[in-house]
């Protein structure tokens, strides 16, 4: 099973972020994720794994999102032991929800 990526397209910059990510991976476009103070936001989840919510994600961070998805897919339970490979995206983390 692959991680599911959702991008809020109501947020400023959300459509551009979704467009950029869709060049490489499938993206679910969603209306308002209630993180309006941190546009654009995205979530990553997979059954049986922790879920992540990021805010203030720009198209410039798209390569970091792709790196995160690779690490997430290969992680046990969705837990990242070292966030440095995802660059500045690690500073955009709003929260991690348990599986």
Descriptive overview:
- The chain has one domain.
- β3 (about 40-45) and β4 form a beta hairpin.
- The protein is built from two helices and five strands, in the order βαβββαβ.
- It has about 100 residues and is an alpha+beta fold.
- InterPro entries: DUF1636.
- It comes from Aliiroseovarius salicola.
- This is DUF1636 family protein.
What would you say about this model in short?
InterPro entries: DUF1636. By secondary structure, the protein is α+β, with helices and mostly antiparallel strands.
Question: What keyword list fits this structure?
Answer:
single chain, 99 residues, alpha+beta, 2 helices, globular
The helix-strand sequence is EHEEEHE
**Separate helix tally:** 2
Strands in their spatial order, largest beta sheet: 2-1-3-4-5
Beta-strand residue fraction? 15-25%
Helix content: 10-25%
Query: Largest sheet, if any?
Result: 5 strands, mixed
Shape: globular
Number of strands: 5
Rg: 12 Å
* First and last CA, distance: 15 Å
Structural class: alpha+beta
Number of domains: 1
* Uncertain regions spanning at least 5 consecutive residues: none
Overall pLDDT: 96
Protein name: DUF1636 family protein
Pfam families: DUF1636
Topology record:
Blueprint: E1 4-8, H1 14-22, E2 28-30, E3 42-45, E4 51-54, H2 62-74, E5 93-97
Parallel strand pairs: 1-2
Antiparallel strand pairs: 1-3, 3-4, 4-5
């Amino acid at each position: 099973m692959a991680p599911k990526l959702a991008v809020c397209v109501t947020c400023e910059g959300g459509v551009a972020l979704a467009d950029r990510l869709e060049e490489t991976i499938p993206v679910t476009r969603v209306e308002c994720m209630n993180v309006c103070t941190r546009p654009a936001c995205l979530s990553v989840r997979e059954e049986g794994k922790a879920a992540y919510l990021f805010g203030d994600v720009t198209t410039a961070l798209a390569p970091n999102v792709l790196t995160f998805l690779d690490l997430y897919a290969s992680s046990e339970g969705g837990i990242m032991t070292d966030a440095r490979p995802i660059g500045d995206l690690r500073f955009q983390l709003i929260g991690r929800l348990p599986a």
